[in-house]
UniProtKB/TrEMBL annotation:
Biological source species: Phaeodactylibacter xiamenensis
The organism's place on the tree of life at top rank: Bacteria
Coiled coil: 262-296
Enzyme class per UniProt: isomerase
GO BP, sorted A to Z: chorismate metabolic process
Molecular function terms from GO: chorismate mutase activity; transferase activity
Name of the protein described by the UniProt record: chorismate mutase
Record key words, sorted: Coiled coil, Transferase
Classification via SMART domains: CM_2
Occurrences of domain Chorismate mutase (ranges): 263-354
Signal peptide start and end residues: none
Length: 361
């Protein structure tokens, strides 16, 4: 897939900034927000018109009437507008009202039938489309949605990282799992990726930290929910901020460039990267040696008919490594993930050894 720039007029060295209310509630609310954001470097004004809510009874969007308000945003505030579409009717209505950019929500991306319906409705239309990640951390499903839209002839595509649902204690509304975004960048370097910090955070106090983290990871921009009276918003009140708060955050965020031609920087980088390559190689050699030892243990276990998993030993290894890791500036999370992978690989090696036909004595 080859992608054209999402917004033709946007220079590549500047972030794509999307802001606006979670939902269009009233004409006044939409226009007040838009006026406050006009001329302030916002590229797209966002607003939900149809809202897929988790449970019935919540505000499900103002519907088609709100599209007229977005048209006024274009005329009065000079801002391009974007909204979420989830079916054929949404696409037709949005196109009829000259919405500039469409987006697919997480609950649509998760369902290939819905994505295909939107893709079919978009055949022959030249409009930029943003695709949010599916609710669950399914990389292929996200890529599948991009492919479906691309196959409909849309080439101005971007993705929105809005985090993933998670059952358990977390400070986020949707956990970021940055690795998935990193994987997407690796597979599609030209595909713009935008951080929806509002949906990742679900709260105001960490919006800036999350947006900055995304920019540090070379994201192409961010999308933030902005409302003139956030506490009284009809949807997602806890995560919305006022236009003034948004503009303050925008001022403080630092947009990182993907690279530079500064020779001194490049030389230093090359030197340090060389050292990293050497250490990586050393680590691989050490890991390979560790697996050979595990295989030898496997041979003894096979002869004595002993189970591979030795929980108390494994626990001892993990606890010691976490304590030592902390002293060396390595987080408990990292040491645990790393050692679990090593332990699993060790088990795999032992399984191979132990399930080989026994050599005759
Ligand atoms: O000590 C053992 O018995 C091993 O097999 C080695 C090892 C490891 O890789 O460290 C692997 C599996 C066990 O669960 C415990 C530890």
């Amino acid at each position: 897939m080859t992608f054209k720039p999402l917004l033709e007029e946007k220079p590549a060295n500047k972030p794509i900034i999307i802001a606006g209310p979670c939902s269009a509630e009233t004409e006044e609310q939409v226009l007040t927000t838009a006026r406050a954001l006009a001329g302030k470097g916002v590229d797209l004004f966002r607003s939900g018109i149809w809202k897929p809510r988790t449970r019935p009874g919540a505000f499900e969007g103002i519907g088609t009437e709100g599209l007229g308000w977005l048209r006024k945003v274009k005329e009065e505030a000079g801002l391009k507008v974007t909204t979420e579409v989830a079916n054929t009717q949404h696409v037709f209505e949005a196109l009829k009202h000259q919405i500039d950019v469409l987006w697919l929500g997480a609950r649509t991306t998760v369902n290939p039938f819905s994505v295909q319906e939107v893709a079919d409705a978009l055949k022959g239309v030249d409009i930029p489309v943003l695709i949010k990640n599916p609710i669950n951390p399914d990389f292929k499903l996200w890529v599948g949605a991009i492919e479906r839209i691309y196959k409909a002839g849309i080439t101005r595509i971007g993705v929105i990282h809005r985090g993933f649902s998670y059952h358990g204690e977390t400070k986020y509304r949707n956990v970021p799992r940055w690795q998935l975004a990193i994987d997407l960048k690796r597979e599609f370097p030209d595909l713009p990726i935008i951080c929806d910090n509002s949906h990742i955070c679900g709260r105001r106090d960490i919006l800036q930290t999350v947006a900055q983290k995304a920019l540090d990871l070379n994201f192409d921009g961010y999308m933030t929910e902005v409302h003139p009276d956030p506490d009284n918003a009809w949807s997602d009140a806890a995560q919305q901020i006022t236009p003034a708060q948004f503009l303050e955050m925008k001022e403080q965020l630092i947009f990182r460039q993907p690279t530079t031609d500064n020779m001194e920087f490049l030389e230093n980088l090359e030197h340090l990267r060389h050292e990293i390559d050497e250490l990586d190689e050393e680590m691989l050699n050490l890991l390979s040696n560790r697996m050979r030892l595990a295989e030898r243990i496997g041979e003894y276990k096979q002869r004595n008919n002993i189970a591979i998993l030795q929980s108390s030993r494994w626990n001892e290894i993990l606890e010691r490594a976490v304590t030592k890791g902390k002293l060396k500036g390595l987080s408990e999370e990292f040491v645990t993930v790393y050692l679990k992978a090593v332990h699993q690989e060790s088990i795999n090696h032992q399984e191979k050894v132990m399930n080989q036909p026994r050599a005759e004595a």
